[in-house]
Amino acid sequence: MDISKFTRFIIFLALFVFFFSCLSSTEAYDPLDPNGNITIKWDIMQWTPDGYVAVVTIYNFQKYRHIQAPGWTLGWSWAKKEVIWSMVGGQATEQGDCSRFKGNIPHCCKKNPAIVDLLPGTPYNMQIANCCKGGVLNSLIQDPSTASSSFQLSVGAAGTSNKTVRVPKNFTLKAPGPGYTCGIAKVVRPSKFASQDGRRTTQALMTWNVTCTYSQFLAQKTPSCCVSLSSFYNDTIVNCPTCACGCQNNIAQPGSCVEGDSPYFASAINRLDKTSSAPIVQCTSHMCPIRVHWHVKLNYKEYWRTKITVTNFNYQMNYSQWNLVIQHPNFDNLTQIFSFNYNSLTPYGNINDTAMLWGIKYYNDLLIEAGPYGNVQSELLFKKDLSTFTFDKGWAFPRRVYFNGDNCVMPPPDSYPWLPNASIRTKSPMLLPIIVFLAAFWCLSFGYGR
Q: Where would one find the signal peptide in this protein (predicted)?
């Protein structure tokens, strides 16, 4: 059966789209933290004449991704005409239209309330346990004691039993911007709580959970960090890829980046909106707020040494509780690390090739905004495994780097610093086999070459 030229063209187009779609990753699934998520637990603790009192807790089960200032915002849609009479440990951002109420006015009457955490220093009569952190949640490995947050709310115009209560829907989580997608609320077994002496256990009257997962592409249109490389055995410094996080566009969009010595600099810094998370970056070829530089520094008989420098090009913010995740096959033989904390991650079972690094508290856990002090650095000492160690073909450089949970843009592998005695490299672009295949398919399908 002969296939029409139109059908062949459609097949060709589909193959073309398929191959190019394979070149990019959606990053919705994180292979280094496959079970990472944020779970929202809603515990009904008591019934009231027209509703219930509940404690809502947000748990960060992500190993290295945290929520930084100005913190989380949790939203949902009520299933019926519920209102929030009062809150402790949190507050709704808007009261909404409460004109139907006479006398006592609810805290919030909106159909889709948005809740934020209270700030540190809140009066004690407005607090509950585990609240009032300004919406900041640390990652699970950095500080598990501050990886959760709670608030209490009294809900009215709701059901007064397990059979009449309706679970809210359309949960959203901003942290502080987009990036998280929340599933539906699922009723689970009621939570149990142990007394301080451990001799008595109580439980919630009703519990439901909501799971929210992170996608870097939903969080931002462009990447937020990049990686540059250098070594002692080659004078070449491999910079971050050009336009890795966007391109300079000061002509069409004045102020998209800032030159440190430009007349615009002072006015740009003065007009910064500290409540916004949008970066105002220093003008560079890569335009990334964060650059991670990996330098292969020294080679000993039994050890080798590398230096890591993290530079902040963002004039808009300091990065508190920052962290790095780096994948390299020699982390199994890490001997010493200077001025950073270290924790081994094993996302692939017993293979120890991934490390999490972060600053020492009160010393370098705050990465200052762009400027002369806007960097942190450390050195790592590795023991050589003679069966695998080599400086050849870029082995000494990391395979993958994350900053604050976001995947950083790496330079192309054929640009890595090579050993001086390496032969001339033959560049083989990744697209070449695809182009050859598509060209052959086109010729065969349309009869060219016959």
A: 1-28
Tell me the DSSP string of 70-88.
T--EEEEE-SSS-EEEEEE
Which residues, at least 6 apart from 86, have a Cβ–Cβ distance to it below 8 Å?
Answer: 106, 107, 153, 154
Give per-10-residue mean pLDDT for the chain (450 aa): 54 46 49 92 96 97 94 97 97 96 94 97 94 95 95 95 94 94 96 92 96 92 94 93 85 67 56 60 93 96 95 92 94 93 84 92 93 94 90 92 96 88 46 50 46
Nearest alpha carbon to residue 161 among 42, 48, 41: 48
Q: Bridge-partner residues for 108, per DSSP?
A: 84
Collapsing DSSP states into helix, strand and coil, what is residue 444? helix
d(CA 432, CA 442): 15
Do 38-218 and 222-423 share a fold?
A: yes
Q: Tell me the angle at which helices 5-22 and 431-446 cross, rounded to the nearest 10 degrees.
A: 170
pTM of the model as a whole: 0.82
Q: How far is Cα of residue 329 from the mean position of the Cα atoms in its chain?
A: 23
Containing 208, the helix (H) or strand (E) segment is strand 206-214
Return the CATH fold of 222-423. Answer: Immunoglobulin-like (2.60.40)
Phi then psi dihedrals of residue 393, to 5 deg: 55, 35
* Domain 38-218 in CATH 2.60.40.290: yes
Angle, alpha carbons 42-82-106 (nearest 5°): 100
Print burial letters for 225-255: b (CB count within 10 Å at least 16), e (below 16).
Answer: bbbbbbbeebeeebbbbeebbbeeeeeeeee
Nearest in space to 229 (alpha carbons), one of 402, 415, 400: 415
Contacts of 71 by beta carbon, 8 Å cutoff, 6+ apart: 116, 117, 133, 134, 135, 136, 137, 175, 176
Tell me the sheet residues that pair with 153. 54, 87
